[in-house]
Structure formats: C-alpha cells, structure tokens
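User: Second chain of the day. Same drill as before.
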Amino acid sequence: MWTEKYRPKSLDELVGQEEVVKRIKGFAKEKTIPNLLLWGPKGTGKTSLVYALAKELYGEFYDENIMLIETSDFMEQRKKWLKEDKRFKFFYDEQKSAIDIFKDMIREYAALSPINASFKVLFFSNADFLPENIQQALRRVMERSSKTSRLIFATTKPAGVIPAIRSRCLNLHFTHLDKSDALETLIRSIAEGEGVKLTEGGLKTLKEYARGDAGAAINMLEAAATTASPATKPIDASRIEEVVRNAFFQRKKAEELIDSAFASRHKEVRAGLEFLVKEERIGGKEILVEIHEALRRKMKAKMAIEEAQKFARLVLYEGEADFKLCNSLNTMIQLEEMITHFFFFNKKENLC
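Assistant: Same format as last time:
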C-alpha cells in the first residue's frame, strides 16, 4: 500500500508540521522525550511522527521498544481483541473483565525494562476512546513507571482526554494540512514517484474529498491509478469521483443510512450500522463524521434557506451523539438513538 510505502522514515520527511517536528527533534537529539499528547485532525501525521521518532531514538531496536495500542479496536471488541492479540496472551484471564485485563497488561508492560534503551514507548492511538477509569489508571502508570516508559497519546479530540493526563504531557498540536501546501506537495510527489499523470482538476477534486487527510488522499490516488484504463490515461476529476463512489464505501454507506432514515426504513438502518460497526470494524466516531459530511452534501444540494435550516437542526442531534460517544461502551446504541431522531424529524418536517 502506498500509505506505508510513502510513510515518513525520518522526522525530516514529515510534511506540514514544521513546528512540531522542530520541538521533537530537540528531544530526539538528547535521546529522551517527555510524555506526549499529540492532537489534531485525522491524517495529519501523528502516527508517522511517533514511528519516525522511535527510529531516531532506538535505531534497529525501534520495533522492540514501541507498543502501538489502537484503543478504538479495544473498545469495540473488548475481550475478543485481547484474546486474539499475541502480545497480551500472558495477561489474559477469562475470569476478569476486559477493562481489568487491559489495566493489568499496561501496568506490567510499562514496568518492564526496555531493550538497549533507557525507556520504551507506549503509544495510544485514538486515546479519546478510552473510558475515564482506564485513563485514570494510565495517569498512575505515567507516575510510577517514568524510569522505564513514556506514554504517547494521539487524538483528534483532546477534550476526550482527561485533564490529569493532559497536564502531565507535552501537548503538541498538528495543524490541518489544507492550511498549507503540504498535502498538494505530498500528492504531487507520490504521483511523480509512481509515474501517475494527475490533472489539476483531479488534484483539486482529490483534495476536496480528502478533507486534509493525507492517508485518504494517498488511498484515493492509489485506487485511481490501479484501476485506471489505460494506465497512461491522466487521472482527472471524473476518475476521482468514480473512485470515491466505488472504493470509499464508507461515504456511500453513510448516504444510504441517511436515505433509509428519512424514508423510515428502520431495518435497513440497523443492518447498515451493524455492517459498518461489526463487519467492517469502523469506529462510531468515524461513522458519525461520514454521516455529517453526507448531510452537508445534501444541504449544499438544497439551496433553499428553509432546507438549510432543517438540516442545521439535524446537526444538533449529531452533536449530542458525538458527546455521548466519548464515554459510551456501545457505539450502536448512540448511533441508533441519533438516527431515530432523524426518523421523527423527517416525518415532522417532510424533509425528503
């Protein structure tokens, strides 16, 4: 995959985050870092920075001294995730709850001595998914295991991380890539490296759909290049549109969910949500973002002020769901509750 092929190998290769990289380089030079909270929009380089930093700190031993924990996967699957991950087999206990197993595992791992290094890194991606009791436990781990470990938290929603952790971390803000030419420079560089002809219209459309997410932009470009026929044909706006419709089914599914909700097709809505959450293992907040963007596109298509006002009121329901998902143990309940509002709202407002 091009996202891994072109993932920055060093801090110097990270684009669009000059201020963050400048600060991190100072720590890397001294071979030490504080606990970190990396926050900013999706696809801006948070994960890439962590791995590039690990390579600077540990060299050939970087893989042994960093543990990535995808918290959204854990919160969605709980015991199933813990049981299937080989890293946790020594900590798994069928008699304990998933939360207790997780906390025990983190405490034990953080206390272990690193390999050929002064400390190791525990990296929590999408840290806002973690419930408060786990975050409180991590705060104590940060205090007790400071000689053997450093904790790095990455999130798109810093408010979802408790103040006790935020205050114990160096907070680094990752800016939206659309605010600079970084995303365009990256895409042009990859297209050139792969021998892909990308028109100006294609680049503009790709940037619009990527919404500043470098990973999404690279995946779209790769999909367009892989399925282009003939291979020498330039990738234009229509080709990107086709890729988005066919390959990026999350957006298509979000539009289908909204259409089903407005038509009061309850069974189709539930089946669609179960498919995204259980089969495709997509996080609740990711689904909510796609639903929001689908609503925005519908609002843009209906230019009448009255229609825009109706859609604006639907966004209030999204806001409530977004807040509840921060501490929810069941994604389906919150998303279904939100879409139930859509059912009744549409009957009342005759939105379709």
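The chain has a mean pLDDT of 84.

User: Great, on to the next one.
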